[in-house]
Design a protein that fits this description.
- The chain contains twelve helices and 22 strands.
- With 446 residues, the chain is α+β, with helices and mostly antiparallel strands.
- The protein has two domains: 232 residues, Rossmann fold; 149 residues, Roll (Pnp Oxidase, Chain A), CATH 2.30.110.
- A hairpin with a 2-residue loop joins strand 21 and strand 22.
- Helix 1 crosses helix 9 and helix 2 packs across helix 3.
């Protein structure tokens, strides 16, 4: 991501992180009240990796953007800043905004239309809910007006609300020291202390936001990701009844905790794929080089397994692999592949039995351990033997014990087909995934 500055009507500049190819579908990311673009840095990077051109802004008076020269933090002034960015970039931009950012996204999309803003994702925001963006005592901004004597005090008071804010390095990035020595969020205090007519006031601006939502002609997804959201279940039902293009979804984490970041990214990408698809790449045919083929095959998400067997001297042998699949249910056959360059390949070829251990999301370290060379891969690993004596990795999401059925040539790999003898599984776990050369996470509701 690179820093870019956009001119404003008041003579100041709006600072943004910009990443991705300008030829890809655009996404404008807008943070909430009193926050900065760093609040959604992970989301922004994930969208860039997903092939989007991302602009994540600091609203006026927030983060590194200039304070309002005239002290104006009203809805109209902030909308004008965002409109100028969209017009300067001169390409369609979906909007992803949280709380205040989501409300601004509603008005921006309603006023610029679907040609400029083809899709909207609003997090914890409702244009019709009213209320006060800063009223919740659990919100870290509740301590914004008086600030903190030092960073140690900020760590103590904020760490209980959001554990991530207990880190001094992060606090230095999202807070700043005032002239009187106290520390406050990195935003202009006038944003919350200035005259009511010069700042966002949901009690006053609610009617305008509701009118914008009523005429919104953009596919929109309103997500509830935290308990203090303005988007409670009743409000979600009301939004869907008011506008047929609006959808709502509740993503509040277990026990009211934060939503899994990967799940949030998946929801956002789902909207973008539905309404702002990338241009399809041209097919490659003929002599495809190994790197290109590996990258193409990496588009197929797989699980992660540890393959195990026992050497003739009784030594347990294992390695991490993701080339595993089902072959047949009757008879029960599975298949996996091992690279010819793997040093333990002869052990698997000589063995009469082996096991496939499917890993869950908490076993990424174990997956890495069974790739390393020159170590005892089973050291510190709980394992047992069943009837065939193939090592079974304990606590796996699933373990499948097999007898050798067939071994085939497969180019630079050997293909092993096993007949299943016994299985053990725990479907309540979330699987460990591998996609495009990296581990991935997915939450499966049960």
């Amino acid at each position: 991501m690179q820093v870019r500055r956009f001119a404003r009507a008041d003579g100041g500049v709006t600072v943004a992180d910009v990443g991705g190819d300008a030829g890809d579908p655009g996404v404008l990311v807008i943070h909430g009240a009193g926050e900065s673009r760093h609040a959604h840095a992970r989301l922004a990077r994930g969208l860039v990796r997903a092939g989007r051109f991302v602009v994540s802004v600091d609203l006026r008076g927030h983060g590194e953007s200039d304070d309002a020269r005239d002290g104006d933090y009203g809805l109209a002034a902030m909308l004008d800043d965002l409109r100028r960015i969209v017009e300067e970039l001169d390409c369609p931009m979906a909007v992803v905004g949280q709380r205040l950012g989501g409300l601004l996204g509603v008005s921006l999309a309603a006023r610029l239309g679907s040609d400029r803003i083809p899709a909207l994702v609003a997090l914890d925001a409702s244009p019709c809910a009213g209320g006060d963006l800063l009223s919740d005592a659990r919100h870290p901004l509740a301590a914004a007006k008086e600030g903190f004597a030092d960073l140690a005090e900020a760590q103590r008071r904020l760490g209980g609300m959001r554990p991530s804010l207990a880190r001094e390095a992060l606090l230095r990035r999202v807070m700043r020291q005032r002239d009187d020595g106290r520390w406050q969020w990195r935003f202009d205090p006038r944003f919350i202390t200035g005259p009511e007519e010069r700042r966002v006031d949901l009690a006053r601006d609610g009617q305008e936001l509701s009118e914008d939502f009523a005429v919104l002609a953009v596919p929109s997804l309103f997500l509830r990701t935290e308990d203090r959201s303005l988007l409670d279940p009743a409000e979600a039902a009301r939004l869907q009844a008011m506008n047929g293009l609006a959808r709502t979804r509740d993503l509040v984490g277990q026990r009211g905790g934060p939503v899994d970041p990967d799940r949030l990214l998946a929801e956002v990408i789902g909207v973008l794929e539905a309404h702002m698809r990338r241009d399809p790449a041209r097919p490659l045919s003929g002599a495809v080089d190994p790197l290109t083929l590996r990258q193409a095959l990496g588009c197929f998400a797989t699980g992660v397994t540890i393959l195990t067997t026992t050497a003739k001297d009784g030594t347990p042998v294992g390695l991490t692999a993701n080339s595993f699949c089902s072959v047949s249910l009757d008879p029960p056959l599975i298949l996996f592949c091992i690279d010819r360059k793997v040093s333990t390949l002869p052990v698997f070829e000589e063995a009469d039995s082996f096991a496939v251990n499917v890993l869950h999301i908490g076993q990424q370290d174990l997956s890495d351990q069974f790739v390393r060379k020159g170590i005892d891969r089973f050291a510190g690993t709980g394992w047992e033997r069943w009837e065939s004596l193939a090592p079974i990795v304990q606590d796996s999401m699933a373990s499948i014990e097999c007898e050798k059925h067939q071994v085939l040539d497969g180019g630079d790999h050997r293909i092993f087909i096993g007949r299943v003898r016994e299985v053990l599984f725990d479907p309540s776990r979330d699987p460990l995934l591998f996609f495009q050369g990296k581990y991935r996470r997915v939450h499966v509701p049960h």
